Each structure stands twice: as C-alpha cells, then as structure tokens.
C-alpha cells in the first residue's frame, strides 16, 4: 500500500521530543560553563567523549534492534518469541553494559593520563561509568515499547531524563565545585584545577540521575502493562518457538552494523581530543590545552549545536518516511522527501550561521561570564560548520532510509582520514593551535556532504536544487545579518545594555528573515 504523500514525519511525537530534549541539553550547559569554568568544561567534555563511545558500543543501537525484532514477531502474532526477545535483550544489556561500565571505571586513570593528558578528568569518567550500564537497560525498554507500536513512552522518558539531568547536573556541579574550592583555599592550593575537576564530576552525576529516572519511569509503565502482555503470550498459537541462542545471535548481528556506522561517525571527537592533546604536549603547551578544549566543547560547540539540534531530530524522524517510499519503489516520492528535508535543514542552518557570525560577541558575552575572546573568534570562524553538519546529517539519514547503510560508514571513514590530515596540517604547518580543530571540523562535514551528494545522485538520481534550497535562504540571511548587526550597534549606543541590544537584534533578525 502506498504511504500518504502528505506525511514527511510519521513519528512526530519522537521528532518533537527529540527537539525538546536537545534544547534542554544545550540550555543547562550554559550555567555549567559559568560554574565550573573553561578548565572544568575541558574535563567534562573529555569524559563525555569516552562515555559517548562506550555508549555507542554498548547500548546506542539497542532500541532500534529490539524494536525491529519485537515488531516483526508481533506482526506474526508470535507473542512468546517477542517475550523471549525482550528477555534476551535484557541479558545482552547486562553483559555489555557491565563490561562497558567496568572498562570506563577501571580505565579512567589510563584514559585521563595517557590518552588525553588530563589526570583530573578521571573523576568525571568514574562518575559516568554506572550510567553506561543504566543506559543499556534503558535502551531495551525503549526498544520494547517502540516495537509494540508506541513512541510515547520513549518520548516521555527522554524528556524526564533530560529535565532531571539538567537540574542535578547544575546543582551537583555547583555543590562539588564550591566544596572542593573551600578545600583548595584551606590548603592554599587555589588554581590547582581540583575544584574544576570535581565540578565536572558533579555535572556528570546529573547524566546518571536522568538515566535512572527514565528507567524507573519505563519500569513503572512496563509493570502496569505487564498483565496485558502476559495474556497475549498465553494466547499465542503460532507454534514456533525461537531459541535464546538464535535470538541473541540475530540481536548481535542487528546491532553491529548500526554500531559500526555510529562509532565511525562519532569517534572523530575522541581522536581529535587525544591527537590535539598530544600536539599541545609536544609543543610544550599542555597546561593551556584543558581550558582551550573546554572553550571549544563548552562554548563554541554549545552554540553551533543549537541549530544543529533541529537537523539531528529531523534525521531521526526521516528514516522511516524515506523507508516507506523505498519499500514501494516510489523514487519520485523519495526524491521529493529528500529535497524537502534538505531544504528544511538549510532554511534553519543558513540564517543560524549568519546570526552566529554577526552576533558572535554579543551572544557569547550574554551567555558566558569571564573572558570570551577565544570563544568569540571560534564562533566567527567556525559558524559555517552549522550548514555542512546539518546537510551531512540529513543526507546520512536519507542514505540509511534507502537501505544504503554502508555508504555513510565508508564516507565517514574517508572524511575522518582527510579531517585528521587537515588537523595536523593546520596545527604544525600553519601554527593555528586550537583553531586548527575548528577548521578541520568544518572540513569533515564538507567531505561528508560531497560524498553523500555523489551517492544520492548515483542511487536516487537526486540532483540538488540550488535556488530555493541555498541561494534564496543565503540572500535572505545576508539581509537579516546586516539588519541584526546594525540593530545591535544602534541599540547598544542608545541603552548600553548587551542583554537588551542582543534580544532586540535577534527578534529583528527573525522578523526580517521571515518577511
């Protein structure tokens, strides 16, 4: 049956919750930066790089795999097999979650000292270790509910998770930072970095608290629905019972391709962190790297992630829509949905890039305390990453939706090699320091966009429409940028308030772009 042409996002509940979750996740980082400082954010960002890779390897793909397997069994009314899949997935989560948590806990000192040259980052790493295990179970329950055809439990649990995460992260980060600072003052060791490290560890406690809250919420829903699920199992007359060994094997081979794709696409942050730390160490600049990395991850990345959150949420919702069109072989619909998704992404990304460029100073000074000169320069030079990362994220989702799962992996590998070569060239050849990371980061997304575009043209016969998708938003953004910059200068001369001037210039920018 042909899917409705009017629907681009069949999973609107998950799409909306993804946007809310990402915006909350971005918002609470602002007080975190102001509490624990650039150095603290350096420890925080480094710990999360390791945590994210452990999460990808252990549980990131579990919701997708469990959902796919459970929904297939329920479609055939194999309720006993669906129950066995759920139990097998819990066993899998127990094993891989425990292994990943143990590696982070016992390897924290090694990663912090030998890989990232930040010994104090081990505090944040150790507090994140139990969270990996919790997230593995959380992935199973989310996948189970999704496999039963409802996205509401996943969406609600994500919002609860992020709200608790935000509250506890800021509170715990502040408490531990201030307590450690008192100890430093008593021991006359102020400036040792210990207070920043404990503040970062406090921030990571919020991640675990949020995950635990979401898990408890899903457990409550599960036990409320348990009697209904068991009645289905008793009514099962399919006669076919899969062994636990077979289920675990299928689960494993369902999980692995998604893991490979995700890890390769995300491992660049860990490699960047380690390589750049080593480069600064060999250049005799180890002490300044932690704060610079904190500025890069805690300020620059925070700002460019605001508009990119829309593209990430869009890509998550796009795959089922494209897959529906691919299932019936409707190439025209696939091209139309691809064009609409890319256009929607550019309509947000291009003006966001312009806004971040012309208002880099006002926005950074409004959100963050202290000296923001480096963050401002990063934002001006690196705002273009918003456009290329948004497009590459969406085109990755399109390729996955048309069942070309290996292509994003291959493209990510090629882009990663070129990106690392560019990073070394910028650092040693042009002596750009931390800015080598900013430029190399943009190039990674550029390479991904080019490779994805070639593949879409080959497999989907898709040719990017330039005028409506790029030229018109770019022209409107140029007018918007000029208006925003002029408005800020005028308002600031009149009232002398950065807050009032920034807010009014942003509102004017939105109005001008909308018109």
Structure description:
This protein has 515 residues and is mostly helical. It has 17 helices and no strands. Helix 2 (29-58) crosses helix 6, helix 4 (79-115) packs antiparallel against helix 5 and helix 8 (244-282) packs parallel to helix 14. The protein is globular. 50% of the residues are buried.
Q: What is the helix tally?
A: 17
Work out the strand percent.
Answer: under 5%
**Count of β-strands:** 0
The pLDDT mean sits at 86
- Which residue ranges are poorly predicted, with pLDDT under 50 across at least 5 consecutive positions? 1-11
* Helical content (DSSP H or I, runs of 4+): over 70%
Query: In terms of structural class, how would the helical and strand content be classed?
Result: mainly alpha
| Global morphology | globular
What is the rounded Rg?
A: 24 Å
**Span of the ends, CA to CA:** 40 Å
Can you describe this structure in just a few lines?
This protein is about 85% helix and about 0% strand. The protein has helices spanning about 10-25, 30-60, 60-75, 80-115, 120-145, 150-185, 195-235, 245-280, 285-325, 330-360, 360-365, 375-380, 385-400, 405-430, 435-460, 465-495, 500-515.
């Amino acid at each position: 049956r042909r899917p409705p042409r009017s629907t681009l996002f069949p999973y609107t509940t998950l799409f909306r919750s993804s946007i809310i979750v990402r915006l909350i996740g971005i918002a609470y980082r602002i007080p975190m930066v102001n509490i624990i400082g650039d150095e603290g954010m350096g420890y925080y960002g480094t710990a999360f790089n390791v945590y994210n890779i452990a999460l990808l390897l252990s549980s990131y793909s579990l919701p997708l795999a469990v959902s796919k397997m459970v929904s297939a069994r329920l479609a055939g009314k194999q309720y006993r097999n669906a129950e066995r899949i759920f139990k097998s997935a819990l066993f899998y989560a127990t094993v891989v979650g425990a292994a990943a948590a143990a590696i982070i806990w016992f390897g924290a000192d090694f990663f912090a000292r030998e890989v990232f040259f930040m010994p104090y980052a081990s505090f944040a790493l150790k507090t994140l270790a139990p969270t990996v295990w919790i997230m593995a179970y959380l992935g199973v329950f989310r996948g189970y509910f999704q496999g039963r055809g409802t996205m509401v439990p996943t969406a609600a649990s994500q919002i609860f998770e992020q709200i608790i995460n935000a509250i506890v992260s800021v509170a715990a980060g502040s408490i531990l930072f201030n307590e450690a600072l008192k100890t430093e003052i008593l021991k006359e060791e102020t400036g040792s970095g210990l207070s920043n490290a404990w503040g970062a560890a406090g921030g990571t406690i919020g991640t675990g608290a949020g995950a635990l809250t979401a898990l408890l919420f899903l457990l409550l829903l599960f036990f409320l629905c348990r009697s209904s699920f068991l009645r289905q199992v008793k009514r099962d007359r399919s006669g076919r019972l899969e062994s636990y060994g077979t289920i675990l094997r299928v689960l494993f081979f369902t999980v692995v391709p998604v893991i490979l794709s995700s890890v390769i696409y995300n491992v660049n942050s860990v490699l960047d962190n380690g390589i750049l730390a080593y480069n600064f160490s060999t250049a005799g600049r180890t002490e300044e790297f932690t704060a610079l990395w904190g500025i890069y991850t805690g300020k620059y990345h925070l700002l460019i992630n605001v508009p990119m959150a829309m593209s990430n949420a869009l890509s998550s919702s796009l795959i089922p829509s494209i897959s529906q069109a691919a299932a019936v072989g409707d190439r025209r619909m696939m091209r139309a949905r691809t064009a609409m998704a890319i256009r929607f992404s550019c309509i947000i990304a291009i003006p966001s890039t312009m806004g971040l460029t012309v208002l880099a100073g006002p926005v950074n000074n409004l959100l963050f305390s202290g000296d923001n000169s480096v963050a401002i320069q990063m934002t001006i030079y690196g705002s273009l990453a918003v456009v290329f990362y948004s497009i590459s994220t969406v085109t990755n989702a399109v390729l996955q939706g048309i069942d070309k799962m290996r292509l994003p992996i291959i493209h990510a590998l090629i882009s990663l090699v070129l990106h690392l070569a560019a990073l070394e060239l910028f650092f040693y050849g042009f002596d750009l320091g931390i800015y080598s990371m900013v430029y190399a980061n943009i190039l990674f997304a550029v390479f991904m966009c080019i490779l994805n575009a070639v593949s879409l043209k080959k497999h989907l016969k898709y040719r990017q429409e330039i005028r409506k998708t790029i030229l018109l938003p770019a022209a409107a953004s140029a007018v918007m940028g000029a208006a925003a910059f002029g408005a800020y200068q005028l308002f600031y001369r009149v009232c002398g308030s950065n807050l009032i001037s920034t807010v009014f210039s942003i509102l004017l920018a939105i109005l001008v772009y909308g018109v």
